[in-house]
Amino acid sequence: MSTQKTLNILIMDPPYESSRTATAFRIMEAAIKKGHNVNVFTYEGATALSLRDQKGHPNPIKGTSLEEEKHPLTKDFVSGLFAFAKQKGVQFNWINCGLCVDERGVSNWVDGPVRGGPADFIKNVQQSDKTLVIATK
Question: How much is the pTM?
Answer without folding.
Answer: 0.88
